[in-house]
Write a structure and sequence with these properties.
By secondary structure, the protein is of the alpha/beta class. Helix content is 50%, strand content 15%. It has 3 domains: 104 residues, Helix Hairpins, CATH 1.10.287; 127 residues, Rossmann fold, CATH 3.40.50.720; 78 residues, Alpha-Beta Plaits, CATH 3.30.70. The longest helix has 37 residues. This is Potassium channel family protein.
Length: 338
């Protein structure tokens, strides 16, 4: 009965572990036998095991050689049996490595880390975001979930790819969403604006349902779905259509100024940050707070009060206890905080 349990346990092990265990036991067995047959040439069992591994792997250093007929016959059996096992083990290990690499590229491998960022949707915005994360050398891993891609090279993009629907619990579990720090949901460019927003809201619900405390940033295209996206559980909404309309307007009436270059340079060299207001800055006017933060190289541009963003308020505006300050900081200086 005990042997049956051991055999059952053995066959439940992964194939690569079973092969390694079989090769090890086989070599130990041959090493012990050659030590018993020719103790004068193989003084210890370890010497015999060394000879078995060297002979079975067809390396053949020649430092230990059997001299008796029985020892040589044992060596023949070792080459026939052990050599085949070792070769099969090496082939299986190589095939397993290649298969794992293919599964990783195909998005079939689950992510086991934590405190990572999950990005939903593969498009130009996603590519630029990944490049920015890579350029600024953030330590947290980035996971991509997408169902339209068939393959994505990990070595080329430095991102862990999960293939599947972002509304599927199984897909989100593969991305280990319960241990994730944040989720970024981009609008699907293959759908109409209304359909893309509805899909985004479903993605928000699925992410929030799998991790109630995760920070969700979502892209919404239409104003009518903004409230629904907040109700679904989004913490931050990026309304790209509003931004693009404003950019077109500025470019239309500021023909002598390259607005896009200014914005790109600002985003490249400056980083938006927010933080809880300090006690020393509570019940102070906005001008005093701006002067205080400027000493640390922070350019105060607004605040968040009761979920409302107030940009460039009057200098006389009084701050309150639960306010959050919004400021710009040079990117190089901001990276030191990560």
């Amino acid at each position: 009965m005990i042997w049956y349990k051991w055999i059952k346990f053995y066959f439940h092990l992964p194939v690569i572990v079973r092969l390694l265990l079989s090769v090890t036991l086989l070599m130990i067995g041959f090493g012990y036998l050659i030590h018993m047959i020719e103790p004068e040439h193989f003084p210890t069992t370890f010497d015999g095991v060394w000879w078995a591994f060297v002979t079975g792997s067809t390396v053949g250093y020649g430092d230990y050689v059997p001299l008796s007929f029985l020892g040589k016959f044992l060596g023949i059996l070792l080459i026939l049996a052990g050599g085949g096992f070792v070769t099969f083990y090496m082939a299986t290990l190589s095939a397993g490595t290649i298969k794992h690499e293919k599964n990783l590229t195909d998005g079939k491998i689950s992510y086991k880390g934590s405190h990572h960022t999950i990005i939903i949707g593969w498009n130009e915005r996603t590519k630029q975001l990944i490049q920015m994360i890579r350029d600024h050398k953030h330590n947290a891993d980035t996971i991509l979930i997408d169902h339209t891609l068939d393959q994505l090279s990990f070595h080329k993009h430095s991102i862990h790819f999960i293939h599947g629907l972002p509304t599927s619990d199984e897909t989100l579990k593969k991305a280990n969403i319960r241990e994730a720090k944040s989720v970024i949901i981009t609008a699907d460019p293959t759908l109409t604006e209304q359909e893309a927003d509805r899909q985004t809201i479903l993605n928000i619900i699925a992410a929030r349902g799998n991790n109630p405390s995760i920070h969700i940033i979502a892209e919404i295209l239409t104003e009518i779905q903004r409230i629904n996206a907040m109700r679904a559980g989004a913490n931050v909404l990026v309304r790209s259509n509003n931004f693009m309309s404003s950019l077109f307007y500025q470019s239309l009436f500021q023909e002598d100024v390259q607005i896009t270059d200014i914005i790109a340079k600002t985003l490249e060299e400056q980083q938006f940050c927010s933080e809880e207001i300090e006690d020393a800055l509570t019940e102070q006017d906005f001008y005093f707070c701006a002067q205080h933060l400027l000493k640390d190289g922070k350019w105060l541009i607004g605040l968040i009060r009761e979920k409302e963003i107030i940009l460039h308020p009057s200098f006389s505006l009084q701050t309150k206890k639960d306010d959050k300050l919004i400021y710009l900081i040079p990117t190089d200086h901001a990276n030191k905080h990560y």
